[in-house]
Amino acid sequence: MELKGKKVTILGMGVSGQAAARWIVSQGAQVICSDLNALKEWPNDFTRWCHQNGVGIETKKHKIDTCLSSDLIVVSPGVSPEISALEAAHKHNIPVLGEMALAASVWKGPLIAITGTNGKTTTTMLVDEMLNKAGVPHVRAGNIGTPLSAFIEGHTEQTIAVLEISSFQLDYFPRTRYFNFNPPRFNITAWLNLAPDHLDRYQNIKSYGDSKAVIYDFQGPGDWSIRNMNDKELETWNDRGRARRLYFGMLSPGVPGAGLDTSLKKIDIMWSDNTWERYDLESWSLKGRHNVENLACAILISRLAGAGAVAVKSVIRIFKAANHRIQWVVQNGGIDYYDDSKATNVASVLCALESIEQPIVIILGGRGKGENYGSLADIAKKTVVRGAIVIGEEAKAFEKILGKVMPVVKVHGTKEGKKVMKKAVEKARSLAEPGDAIILSPACSSFDMFENYEERGMAFQEAARELNDLLIE
User: Fold this and answer.
1) Which residues, in sequence order, are CB contacts of 447 under 8 Å at separation 6+?
2) pLDDT of residue 180
3) Quick one: average pLDDT of 213-237?
4) Which fold has domain 7-94?
């Protein structure tokens, strides 16, 4: 896409918007940066960069007139597609692209796209480490941290982009072809799973899945699509896409892909040419079947991307869980503390409860996403859950549902997140017994009390360690 001399408006000045702005300016475009926050809340270094480079600044509102005067609008994933400025742009046929869609369209090397409700980060990290171990040139980008736009300069045709892609990012991949837009091509895609999430943005799980299924539309017959054989929620889109297919999960005989055995102690790969590989999991340290599925998918991706089996097996032996994802923090008084702050939907909480074999006290709550919490009450009847500590804006909703099947303690307040979390950990400790596990697995976003799930997880870890220090003294 030729950007020189074009007027480009960028909506949303998070990390992806900032990265897009820097690259688009380098291409000779006239740029306006727009964000709902007041200017004093923008990063100082980025504000200085805008002034130094003649970049326009728009605050507190995404203005319709600004968008209508643009040749292109680039959108950060957190911006809702339903805002009036974007609706007006669509009516006037002004191209609207996401930061990742734009960056992927100019990427010279192969593209690997990994999506799903849960497990994206773990799978992306596994692929990254396997390719690192094998010496395959690549970058890790997208929803996992660094925007792809930040890597455009300096990459070559041999540089693979391993992308964690959310539904929010896929919302801004164009459904129609713009005359001057070269659509990206994903050489490998993986859709890990689908469960209710972000129902505050999507009408239902079908529309949420439709957003993710767009990933298949950017592949051709020579590419690879890796799919979860055992997730029934994905069946709606079984016929979507033209790429060759591999599967992972409990596979039937003759199905190509990565097959798990019932003991979860090995993964057998059968390729399309009927050749076989076996991967032993005796040294695999991550808990739960869902993480074995993530590993199976990552093995397929990495081997297709050029990593050798030796490199893959080496990573299986040493890989550790991502931070804030069933991350063991400390043990005190015979009680283990786990930080699962990244569990921002019910499905991921269910995975955590099924993965930990000890009796559990769970800390739940935050800002809700429109989900039904009934399945948490159902699993509590099958799993030893001693009680729940509920916090944040959704505390009352959890108390109403879970109070019927277990002791529930409500911690009030949302203004001082660290204090609320410290009190929640103390209350959890009063319900737990030696041999139990206390886990922060909120089933909600963090934005009522914290900047992000990382800050929430660190508040939990700090509280758990402080309690440990008090017990030692």
Assistant:
1) 366, 367
2) 72
3) 96
4) Rossmann fold (3.40.50)
